[in-house]
Amino acid sequence: IEALVNAEIPVMGHLGLTPQSKNMMGGYKVQGKTLELAKKLFEDALLLQELGCFSLVLEGVPSIVAESISEALSIPTIGIGAGKFTDGQVLVLHDILGMKSKEYVDAKFVKRYSKQYEDTVEALKNYKSEIQNNEFPTEDHSYAMGPDLQESLEEWKKEIKKILS
C-alpha cells in the first residue's frame, strides 16, 4: 500500500468481508463478530489510514464496529452491509436493480429497489411471442417511402424478380 501511495496511486482500503477472499473466510459471513476480531478490524483500519489510504470500505461488519472505526478515522468510510454510521453507503448496482433471478439469495444487507430480472424475462417472452405471432413489427415500427418513390420501387422489384428467376 505504501509503495502505491508513494507512486501517487490512490488506494482505497477494504476491510471485513472481502468477496475475493470468501473461501478463506468460510464463505459470505459477517466479519468482526467477536471482541477480538472487532479489535483486529479497528487496528487494521488505523493501519490502512496510516499507510495512506484515502478512504476505507467496510463490508459485512457489525454496525457498532463500523461506527467505532468511522469515528476514529479521519478518512471517509464507505459501508456495504456495515450499518448506517459510515460516512457513505454503497450497494452493487445489480442488487439495487434486482437484476438477479429470485433463486439468487441476497446478502442480508441487500435491498432490491426494482425487479429488473423479472421485468426483463417478461419483456423477452412478450417480444418472442409477438415475433412468432407476426404481431411485431407493425407499420408503426417500419419505415415507408414517399408515394412518388413507392411506384418506382415496385417496378424495380419486378425487374429484380425477373433477374432472379
Short description:
With 165 residues, the chain is of the alpha/beta class.
Task: Quickly list its features.
165 residues, alpha/beta, 2 domains, four-stranded parallel β-sheet, 4 strands
Write a structural description.
- It is a single chain.
- It contains 6 helices and 4 strands, in the order αβαβαββααα.
- The chain is an alpha/beta fold and about 160 residues long.
- The chain folds into 2 domains: about 1-90, no CATH class; about 95-140, no CATH class.
- Strands 1-2-3-4 form a 4-stranded parallel beta sheet, covered by helices on one side.
- The longest helix is centred in the C-terminal third of the chain and has 18 residues, at about 145-165.
- It starts with a helix and ends with a helix.
Question: How is this fold's topology laid out?
Answer:
Elements: H1 2-6, E1 12-16, H2 35-51, E2 55-59, H3 63-72, E3 77-80, E4 88-89, H4 93-96, H5 116-132, H6 147-164
Parallel strand pairs: 1-2, 2-3, 3-4
Helix pairs in contact: 2-3
Helical content (DSSP H or I, runs of 4+)? 40-55%
SS-derived structural category:
alpha/beta
Helix and strand run? HEHEHEEHHH
Q: What is the mean pLDDT?
A: 94
Radius of gyration: 28 Å
Distance between the terminal alpha carbons, to the nearest Å? Answer: 73 Å
Reading side by side through the largest sheet, how are the strands ordered? 1-2-3-4
Query: How many beta-strand runs?
Result: 4
Provide the β-strand percentage band: 5-15%
Shape, per Cα inertia axes: elongated
Q: What low-confidence regions span 5 or more consecutive residues with pLDDT below 50?
A: none
Query: How can the largest sheet be summarized?
Result: 4 strands, parallel
So how many helices? 6
Query: What count of domains describes the coordinates?
Result: 2
